[in-house]
Design a protein that fits this description.
The complex is a heterodimer. By secondary structure, chain A is an alpha+beta fold. In chain A, the strands form two sheets. In chain A, strands 1, 3, 4, 5, 6, 7, 8, 10 and 11 form a nine-stranded mixed beta sheet that branches. Chain A has a two-stranded antiparallel sheet with strand order 2-9. The radius of gyration of chain A is 30 Å and the shape is elongated. Chain B is built from five helices and 15 strands. In chain B, strands 6-5-4-3-2-1-15-14-11-10-9-8-7 form a 13-stranded antiparallel beta sheet. In chain B, strands 12-13 form a two-stranded antiparallel sheet. Chain B starts with a helix and ends with a helix. The chains are: A alpha+beta, B alpha+beta. Chains A and B meet through strand 6 and strand 7 of A and strand 6 of B.
């Protein structure tokens, strides 16, 4: 307690220096938290767009080979498989049946090549929650429910695609795909909704009723592309996947070896394999968007690099300040040693001073960084550059930071400050009392 | 000139300009009359037998050179069959479209491939659609309402608004027609998307009449169809129709095999 009180008194005594150092530490903590929040925002955006468009928390994909040289990404006996998945997957919240395709969307003026996602009727409400209709076309999605056009499937596009196609809700388009048998098939559709972009994934995804996509591909009944499994806790995806693989094997299904590749890469690999029939693959969401997680990896690496540089600068700064403090307080040190304070306590005095200042400044900076991240996130600042939008996975700047990350950043910075003060503290502790007193003379 | 002569002239002029002397409707047509107008329009263009005509299709795209195609169009209205066979230029010769059982197929002899396509297909990339060449089924496919009586150049026309019926497979869910009051033929047509966006404007300025023995009546055929793209302004297609022949066609003509044989 004496040492702590002395530390606080010393900090107050050199309050200008303490304030400057504290500001620097707060700024570093602030920047760390902002960088963490940016990574967190990208991860959250990636997760949101991926689980809306491309993947569930788990995926049960089917691959069917009628001969050694071909392969189709189809799942047969879907109803029975869905019941098994629902019954035997731990922590399952929902099992969605989806169809997947690839083809052209042709408008009056242009066309785009895009992935096609077929959603079930039971998913519409969840999708409407996840997607944000472009404000220009009204607050509510312009779902085509006009009796006159109810016969045509409603196609949901994203803003960038709509701009390229020069369409708006209510316009007609033609969908053209190549069936698994190699024939070209077409179908007219109506643009039902245009939603805000969701990053790179939405650039090559359009949504339509699963039944329409199945008709386009001429799928047999009880055939689909994939089952998307939604869990109560996404962090349990790996263990749930392992349990599901076991259950499927016990159910008599043939499984592929686990792989971290997305399904379209798997499809190409499997086309060269010699087996025939149906095999099933169980993947987690990370596998299906592995071609995008490089963005997170790159940002994490960059964050680590910048943080290291900042930490190094902080360490040098703190060390320098403490050296100055030791020189300035040589007399005080001598006095303390002369009246019986041990070397350890003298050393602890300097370390505790640094830790106290470091913790207070880091917490302050981290808290401000967290608040700034929250405000920036709420402001929904538009991202002007298309390339940046693709990387950030969002049209607006998204920042997301957990309270644990704030505390972690503050503690880490405090630790760095404490370690930086260690050497000057050791040197201070080694000063002999007579040396210290003589320095006054 | 005496005042009495001036007055007489004035009265004559007033009478001449009086609406009572001009052709026109005394009242807007009823719903049934509108339906009958469309039915008459369809019937006028329908032939109970076969139908063949030769035509030129000129396509002008904004900023590009004009392209011209020669085509033969065959129809068997009783069986809802249509075939379009392109005969020139050499690069397009042998390509065609065949409509069987509500399905439209496109054939490309270069790759020997048939592709199923939809009502929205641009015929050989032009601004025309299948319905522009096929039998008129407006009464069956659309529900009409009367907009008003208008002047279109020197013609007095009835302006109708057509909305696609729920079960119809049409390229344009909303159509506006301007029908010549004197003949009942379409002079102008505008095609809209479901959102109300104007997509095309068609002009059919001249109609020819041919006697059909199988029908026992005349069949009206547009001599020219001018299609203007309203999205890509400056892009248009002109179809000229000639050598109309209403005699029976070979029984096996409306088959994939026949179309394929034309390119061998």
């Amino acid at each position: 307690m004496v040492v702590l009180r002395l530390s606080l008194q010393n900090l107050w005594g050199a309050r200008h220096r303490s304030l400057l150092l504290g500001l620097a530490l707060s700024l570093v903590a602030f920047l760390w938290v902002i960088m963490l929040a940016l990574s967190g925002g990208i991860r959250a955006s990636l997760l949101r767009s991926a689980t809306t468009l491309a993947t569930g928390h788990l995926n049960v994909s089917g691959y069917y080979k009628s001969s050694a040289g071909d392969v189709a990404a189809v799942l047969t006996d879907v109803a029975r498989l869905r019941r098994l998945v629902r019954a035997r997957t731990p922590g399952v919240a929902e099992v969605r049946v989806r169809n997947r395709g690839w083809g052209k969307v042709i408008s009056e003026t242009s066309s785009i090549q895009t992935g096609m996602i077929g959603y079930g009727d039971d998913e519409i409400d969840d999708l409407l929650d996840a997607l944000t209709p472009v404000a220009e076309y009204g607050d509510t999605p312009a779902l085509i429910d006009d009796e006159g056009m109810a016969r045509l499937p409603s196609l949901w596009l994203f803003a960038d695609q709509a701009e390229r196609l020069r369409v708006e809700p209510g316009d007609g388009v033609t969908l053209r795909i190549e069936t698994l048998g190699g024939q070209t098939n077409t179908m007219d559709a109506i643009v039902g909704m245009i939603a805000e972009d969701m990053g790179l994934l939405s650039s090559f995804s359009v949504l339509m009723p699963s039944s329409a996509l199945a008709e386009l591909y001429q799928f047999a009944p009880d055939t689909a592309g994939v089952l998307h499994v939604v869990l109560d806790d996404i962090d349990r995806a790996d263990s749930a996947a392992a349990a599901l693989r076991q259950a499927l094997l016990q159910g008599g299904h043939e499984l592929l070896e686990p792989s971290s590749e997305p399904f379209f890469v798997r499809l190409q690999e499997l086309s060269t394999e010699a087996w025939r029939g149906q095999k099933i693959d169980v993947t987690v969401w990370r596998d299906e968007v592995s071609y995008l997680t490089w963005i997170l990896t790159a940002l994490t690496t960059l964050t680590a690099l910048l943080s290291s540089i900042l930490a190094g600068l902080i360490a040098i700064g703190v060390m320098n300040v403490q050296w100055i403090a030791v020189r300035e307080r040589t007399t005080e040190i001598g006095t303390l040693r002369a009246i019986g304070m041990s070397r350890a306590r003298v050393g602890a005095l300097f370390v505790i001073e640094s830790l106290t200042l470091g913790f207070a400044a880091a917490m302050c900076g981290a808290w401000l960084g967290g608040a700034a991240a929250k405000l920036l996130d709420l402001a929904e600042i538009p991202v002007p550059l298309e390339a940046l939008r693709a990387i950030l996975m969002s049209n607006t700047l998204r920042l997301h930071v957990e309270a644990s990350s704030l505390l972690g950043a503050a503690c880490l910075l405090t630790g760095i400050v404490g370690l930086s003060a260690l050497w000057p503290a050791l040197r201070a502790a080694r000063i002999a009392p007579v040396t210290a007193i003589q320095s006054v003379a | 000139m005496r005042a009495i002569h001036m007055l007489a002239l004035f009265l004559l002029a007033a009478l001449a300009l009086s609406p009572a002397l001009h052709a026109g409707r005394e009242r807007p047509p009823t719903a049934r009359e509108i339906e009958q107008m469309l039915e008459a329009l369809d019937e006028r263009q329908r032939n109970s037998g076969d139908y063949r005509w030769e035509g030129m299709i000129y396509q002008q795209e904004r900023g590009k050179a004009e392209t011209a195609y020669q085509a033969l169009v065959f129809r068997r209205d009783e069986e809802d069959k249509l075939m379009i066979l392109f005969t020139a230029p050499r690069t397009e010769a042998g390509k065609g479209y065949l409509r069987i059982d509500q399905t439209l197929f496109r054939y490309d002899p270069t790759i020997g491939r048939w592709e199923r396509t939809t009502e929205r297909e641009r015929i050989l990339g032009t601004n025309t659609r299948r319905a522009d060449f096929d039998e008129s089924r407006l009464a069956e496919e659309y529900a009409a309402s009367y907009v008003g009586e208008e002047a279109l150049g020197a013609y007095t026309v009835d302006h109708l608004l057509l909305q696609a019926r729920p079960a119809s497979d049409v390229a344009y869910p909303r159509v506006e027609l301007w029908l010549d009051q004197a003949t009942g033929n379409t002079l102008k047509r505008q095609d809209f998307s479901a959102s109300g966006k104007l997509l095309r404007t068609l002009y059919l300025p001249t109609w020819n009449r041919y006697y059909s023995e199988s029908k026992g009546d005349d069949v009206y055929v547009p001599a020219e169809i001018r299609v203007y793209d309203e999205l890509e302004v400056g892009t248009y297609t002109i179809v000229t129709v000639k050598n109309v022949d209403l005699r029976p066609l070979p029984a096996n003509l409306f088959t994939k095999a026949w179309l394929e044989s034309q390119s061998r």
